[in-house]
Amino acid sequence: MKPRSGWSTLDRPSQLAVVALGALAAGAVLVPLLATADPLAIGDVVARKLLPPFARDEAGGFHLLGTDRFGRDLFVRMMLAGRISLAVGVLGSVLAAAMGTVVGALAGWNGGAIDRIAMAAADTVLAVPRLVLLLVCAALWQPGTTTVVIVLAATGWMGVARMIRSEVAAARVRPYVEAAGALGVPTLRTLWRHVLPNAIGPALVATTLGVGSAVMLESGLSFLGLGIQPPAPSWGNMIAGGRDLIVSAPWVALAPGLTLIITVVAATILGDAWRDRLSGEAPVRALADRA
Amino acid sequence: MSFSLIVRRVAGAAALFWLVVTLIFALVRMAPGDPATLLVSPSATADDTERLRAELGLDRPMAVQYARWAGALLRGDLGESFALHIPVVRALADAAPVSLALGIASILLTFAIGVPLGLAQAMWRGRAADRIATVATAAVFAAPTFWVALALVAFFTYGAATIGLPAWMRLPAFGVRTPGVSLTGWADLIDVARHAILPVATLTAVGAAGVARYARTNFADVLGLDLVRAARARGASGARVLVRHVTGNALPGLVVLFALTLPGVVAGSVFVESVFAWPGLGRLTLSAIAARDYPVVLGAGIWYAGAVIAANLAADLVLPMLDPRRRSTAT
Q: Does this model's pTM top 0.90?
């Protein structure tokens, strides 16, 4: 059965989530382009530093969320950071799902030893909390954007791999797959055309939900100084940048968290709504990732 | 549950632990850089480095190194910290009580708040209160732990000063004790407790939001079962339905949830201990990462992974006692 599609079939929270994510993505692309001041440049520090939200500076420039210790506009920087944070989150989650799909399809299709090895590997990585894996990897390799994306993929593929594996293993014995084999369709083409389209739904849900946790994990690593490195702004390292000002100018640290929370909530709502349509089960494991 | 099944479960957990330990060993060896070059003093010659490599066994074949390392691990020896120059086990044991204190206080509060909240939401599903709670728990759960921590600090320092809260409500935000004052007995205990309020509140807020979200679904599923409707139809009171029918059916789900939460208690929270400057396992791990103190990072990782596997095993063994359907030896 094909799920219904279209805007009107979405419930109100899902519509809000789509609008919020769209607005954030548009803001991340457009705001830094349209901003009058360079979000990385440091201007008249003394006059502009640590202005509170809704303040105007001496030149009349309006600062929606105030300014940081160098007088840079927090709203513009937050949107610029959104480019990196959203890109890393989406990329990390999509790569993880792609990897999981390949591993799961191999395991489910071939069965036997390959299956057992792949699932033992998945169980092994699942047994280590994702944050611990991320921290260990960040400790061992040079921190940076590429490392974060690779590590997010390497620690996020297991759920999708398991789902795809069971779907593929079930589809493998279906008559239409057998028919394809009998007609001489190459294995890869059978997998791609006939097996995966039936197995991909839950994997897409996991990817959507994964964007939220990837964005969250990236922010955590960056907050600890092990993720995106300044001066490139990400939501996590912006929060870290305002950390020592928390008792005197709390908006510097707290403002970038708002877009982060909106992103994670929106990704969760969309993933949940989508899952409800496919009627899967709730991912309890997300709870364990919050050390 | 049969004895052989128990044995199989324990053996499975042990095998998994061994795989995890191997994974962690492999990760370190895949990392660029040689531990010996990090250990020697900057003025050391190439000969000194070579001698140290021989001393640490780093010049031996990989299989030998692995066997030695795994053997030491079996004896409970995690090696010596590069930076602290004490056994890793000692470093972990020193930091553990701090993490445990925060963890136990917060997991108790997390379940004491999260489970009743989830139950209440499930019972009054769709009403305004449920919707407000759903939005609130979703938002708190979506907020990174360190952000919640910083928001609480901001409120009780900057916020308290701005809106003029009385002095006793301005909670200390950093450290375990007030620096520069030596207190004893009750005064010391109260001082520590006041310092613990914000870290525990942070862990509880994030934890309870997650538990409530899960418990709501869990209880809603149980309340929708035919047996609950049948009990109501027989005229059983609301309280009797809850105690006799709902609790038992909801318990396995909550046990799984508890097993997932438990490892965090013994492993400590990197973010909370970092923001509030509590010297627990999380903070030890972070400073070890900063100092490239691999043995400590690995020790902490193994400890955490061991806790996860142990908690899962415990849940696997307890669940059949709570749920007869899980007693079959099929899996």
A: no
